[in-house]
Backbone:
């Protein structure tokens, strides 16, 4: 027969031996009461843990897309505001040309307005946010639009002299007829704003940024300096101040002004179309965010169904563990008072 050694020390240590585990369990239970979620999801769910992890990853993807959409929406808003300025300047200039007398005394004024308009267009197309140019398309790290004097002017001068066989400042500008001016505008000048646009005027990419706004939807969310709207406005400004307009006859100058007004009108209309596209993109982003918000609510409910604890049961466990700990402390204190001296 085997006997177990019994001593006062053994009795003291008996309740204390489980105290660490009780305190650890109490911490876990308290956290579950506060968070409403299993302290150890993997232990609680077992093989179903993969399902909740998959749901959380899907939820994280929606959060990432929502954050990305906020940045994209800011870029769209900034771009649209810049286009508002471009359109307003062009519209004001166009209105100043309508009904303007064709006398040479008015040429210097409209030429200075055109130069200011082109300067404003250039600075707008070279706007950047952060480290990215708004109108660079996918090539957003490179300044998209060249300053007129840095290259485009030489191309205009060459096109003019090659066609008329004299420079713009020559007195023979007065000999240019409306028909000749029409042929020049529709031919050599148009080519500077068409085939020669890349490199001469623009360093932008004609491919716009495509943004993923939801798990299944990607849309265009930028505007390129290569857009036809900017070619038309640029051409109108250049025709005003850099085709020798001051030396032309009233008849030829009148024809040129009518072409400038028409080109400005086309450019303004094109800018409006671009802004409409940006508005459509913003609307799609808002709709995508709304759908993803509903999806996140649904995913949160599914995640809760897997990971949530019963708050009433968790509270009962906290109370039970607290009682056990207090009982352990009480027993230890009572056993600590046991001594044979008290019985001698």
Residues:
């Amino acid at each position: 027969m085997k006997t177990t050694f019994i001593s006062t020390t053994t009795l003291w240590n008996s309740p204390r031996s489980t105290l660490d585990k009780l305190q650890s369990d109490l911490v876990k239970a308290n956290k579950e009461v506060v968070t409403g979620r299993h302290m150890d999801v993997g232990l609680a769910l077992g093989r179903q843990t993969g399902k909740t992890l998959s749901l959380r990853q899907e939820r994280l993807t929606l959060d990432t897309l929502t954050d990305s959409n906020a940045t994209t929406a800011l870029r769209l808003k900034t771009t649209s505001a810049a286009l508002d300025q471009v359109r307003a300047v062009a519209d004001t200039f166009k209105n100043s040309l309508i009904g303007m007398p064709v006398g040479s005394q008015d040429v210097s004024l409209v030429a200075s307005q055109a130069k200011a308009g082109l300067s404003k267009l250039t600075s707008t197309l070279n706007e950047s946010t952060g480290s990215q140019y708004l109108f660079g398309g996918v090539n957003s790290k490179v300044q998209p639009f060249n300053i007129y004097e840095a290259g485009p002017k030489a191309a205009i001068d060459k096109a003019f002299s090659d066609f008329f066989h004299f420079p713009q400042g020559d007195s023979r500008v007065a000999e240019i007829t409306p028909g000749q001016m029409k042929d020049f505008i529709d031919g050599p000048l148009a080519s500077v704003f068409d085939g020669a646009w890349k490199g001469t005027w623009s360093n932008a990419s004609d491919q716009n940024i495509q943004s993923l706004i939801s798990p299944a939807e990607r849309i265009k969310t930028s505007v390129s300096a290569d857009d036809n709207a900017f070619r038309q406005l640029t051409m109108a400004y250049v025709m005003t101040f850099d085709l020798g307009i001051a030396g032309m006859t009233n008849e030829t100058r009148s024809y040129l002004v009518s072409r400038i007004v028409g080109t400005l009108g086309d450019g303004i209309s094109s800018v409006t179309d671009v802004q409409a596209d940006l508005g459509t993109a913003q609307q799609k982003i808002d709709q995508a965010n709304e759908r993803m918000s509903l999806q996140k609510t649904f995913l949160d409910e599914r995640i809760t169904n897997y990971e949530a604890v019963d708050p009433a049961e968790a509270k009962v466990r906290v109370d039970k563990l607290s009682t056990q700990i207090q009982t352990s402390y009480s027993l230890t204190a009572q056993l600590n008072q046991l001594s044979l001296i008290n019985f001698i």
Q: What stands out?
A: The beta strands are 128-129, 132-133, 210-214, 217-220. Residues 167 and 240 are 16 Å apart (CA to CA). DSSP finds eleven helices and four strands in the chain. The first helix runs from residue 8 to 16.
